[in-house]
Design a protein that fits this description.
The structure holds 2 protein chains of 2 kinds.
Chain A: E1 5-7, E2 10-13, E3 19-24, E4 31-38, E5 42-50, E6 65-69, E7 75-79, E8 88-95, E9 106-107, E10 111-115
Parallel strand pairs in A: 2-10
Antiparallel strand pairs in A: 1-3, 3-7, 4-5, 4-8, 6-7, 8-9, 8-10
Chain B: E1 3-5, E2 10-14, E3 19-21, E4 24-26, E5 32-39, E6 46-52, E7 59-61, E8 64-69, E9 74-79, E10 88-96, E11 103-104, E12 108-113
Parallel strand pairs in B: 2-12
Antiparallel strand pairs in B: 1-4, 3-9, 5-6, 5-10, 7-8, 8-9, 10-11, 10-12
The chains are: A mainly beta, B mainly beta.
Chain lengths: ~120, ~110
């Protein structure tokens, strides 16, 4: 079966514009995660969705960041009024386990966001 | 709070050498999971291994082996007879059962030269 897919693979935007990043998890995976990888910050957790539970948004860096997961499958990460420090690779991951069971997360190829 | 430290930023070896990547972690949980991921130049993170805190048995998979020691809070990764294709960034990560996120170390860039 297909792995985690993300689109677009690359996004260049101007400072102040809004962007939407999409993630399609592995079919049947109930857990979905967003991470950000940037120089100097490493890999940072952003947000976690599990089934119909309220998402864990504790990693979102500011209120300009939000995410949705529709129908328990596809997720969209939205960044409003982008800033240059938002430039990074945004990684999506999915797993089949609920929190606490430690199953491995499978990562997508990422979206490279560049804010000019 | 949880923390993962990979003190080796970069390692360079010659093909066929053995190499060990260090990982030290901090957590207050008694139950947790440790992971290693590989990130080749293509950029996609590839899962290598998961270990839970109750299982301190070392594991070997082909040329890869992992040494988990709770007493020193370490989960080190050894590649035996390294190959050029092993060149990548390797990340160690921790997941507490009380939380949902993976906490990653800073990564170790491994370069295997022919």
């Amino acid at each position: 079966g297909a792995g985690v897919s993300q689109s677009p693979s690359n996004k260049v935007t101007e400072k102040g514009k809004d962007v939407e990043l999409r993630c399609d998890p592995i079919s049947g995976h109930t857990a979905l995660y967003w991470y950000r990888q940037s120089l100097g910050q490493g890999l940072e957790f952003l947000i976690y969705f599990q089934g119909n539970s309220a998402p864990d948004k504790s990693g979102l860096p500011s209120d300009r960041f939000s995410a949705e997961r529709t129908g328990g499958s596809v997720s969209t990460l939205t960044i409003q009024r982008t800033q240059q420090e938002d430039s990074a690779v945004y990684l999506c991951a999915s797993s089949s386990a609920v929190a606490g069971l430690g199953n491995e997360q499978f990562f997508g190829p990422g979206t490279r966001l560049t804010v000019l | 709070a949880q923390k993962v430290t990979q003190a080796q930023t970069e390692i360079s070896v010659v093909e066929k050498e053995d190499v060990t990547l260090d990982c030290v972690y901090e957590t207050r949980d008694t139950t947790y999971y440790l992971f290693w991921y590989k990130q080749p130049p293509s950029g996609e993170l590839v899962f290598l291994i998961r270990r839970n805190s109750f299982d301190e048995q070392n594991e070997i998979s082909g040329r890869y082996s992992w040494n988990f020691q709770k007493s020193t809070s370490s989960f080190n990764f050894t590649i035996t007879a390294s190959q050029v294709v092993d060149s990548a960034v390797y990340f160690c990560a921790l997941r507490e059962t009380s939380g949902s996120r993976l906490t990653f170390g800073e990564g170790t860039q491994l370069t295997v030269n022919p």
